[in-house]
Amino acid sequence: MHRYVWLLALAASFSASIHAVRAETPEERGAYLVETVAACGNCHTPRGPDGAPLTGKALAGGVVIELPAFTAIGANITPDIETGIGGWSDAEIATAIREGKRPDGTLIGPPMPFNFYRHISDRDMHAIVAYLRTVPAVANEVPASEYRIPLPDAYGPPATPVPEVPRDDKVAYGAYLAGPVGHCLECHTPRVGGHPDLENRPGAGGMELPAPGGGIVVAPNITPHSDKGIGSWSDAEIKTAITRGVRPDGTELAPVMAFAWYANMSEEDLDAIVAYLRTLKPVSH
Which stretch is the leader sequence (predicted)? Predict the structure, then answer.
């Protein structure tokens, strides 16, 4: 009898979980992705002198990213008609994210990681666009970015349909979150010819990034190498580094990483990302 009751409870719990996933609206899914894994606000929400996001300015643009090759200024991606993307169609917003092309045909420059975003699933892209439509419109004219390098004619061929990645395949889904959505490997992979060396050294670190307040920080090695990477860290320690920016020894990581956004990721998604990182080739770098 007790076993029968336990099985009924388990079935009810499983049914409720499936129902919850199915009940997730595009806006809810988009809100989760934009505000956690993708951390769009890390580049598109202006901050005050204390580094905290400015109230009432979510995704209104203005974040300056200064590197030798460019001075990039995060765009206003709120639905404001004049200064944001309120006049763009859903397809035009998706094209801007996946292909780096504005409705007028001009290219969006780095550091937007189009090589990753073009692999966001169609369902998730629809969800992201749906959520961006719900964000409060903020009138905020953002200066144009300046590039001291030539931009290409295009970042590749037009994006093609992208299927859903099954969430029950933990490693594959973790690769999807750490790759196309969260673009972790964009910053944590050494560059060759200006592009991440994903074929040979994914996750091996080494990219130089501007630090808040000035200076340069180097993205760490997140491969499972026992000495140079995170191979000796426990799952819990890796999750703490992602969500709080604290290493196992208690020292803090540079706040270039979007800890404030990652802190709200689901435990399931964090587990998937950790499972994927464990599969990377250990690299001493």
Answer: 1-20
pLDDT reading at 26 higher than 70: yes
3-state secondary structure of 72: strand
Coil, strand or helix: which one is 229?
coil
pTM: predicted TM-score of the whole model, two decimal places: 0.90
pLDDT band at 285 (very low <50, low <70, confident <90, very high): confident
d(CA 84, CA 132): 11
Please give the Cα distance from 267 to 94 (Å, whole number).
Answer: 28
Sign of CA dihedral 54, 60, 62, 68: positive
Q: In this structure, are residues 238 and 203 in contact, taking their beta carbons and an 8 Å threshold? A: no
pLDDT digits (tens, 9 = 90+) for 143-162: 999 999 999 999 999 999 99
Q: Is the peptide bond before 143 cis (omega within 30 degrees of 0)?
A: no
Q: 44: which 2 tokens?
A: 């598109």
For residue range 198-237, list pLDDT tens digits in order: 999 999 998 888 887 778 899 999 999 999 999 999 999 9
The correct answer on CATH 1.10.760 for the domain covering 167-285 is yes
- Closest Cα partner for 125 from 154, 90, 101, 156? 90
Q: How far apart are CA 44 and CA 48, in angstroms?
A: 13
Residue ranges of the domains in the chain?
Answer: 25-164, 167-285
Question: Which secondary-structure segment (H or E) carries 238?
Answer: helix 235-244
The rounded distance, in Å, linking the Cα atoms of 212 and 217 is 9
* 188-198 per-position pLDDT tens digit: 999 998 889 99
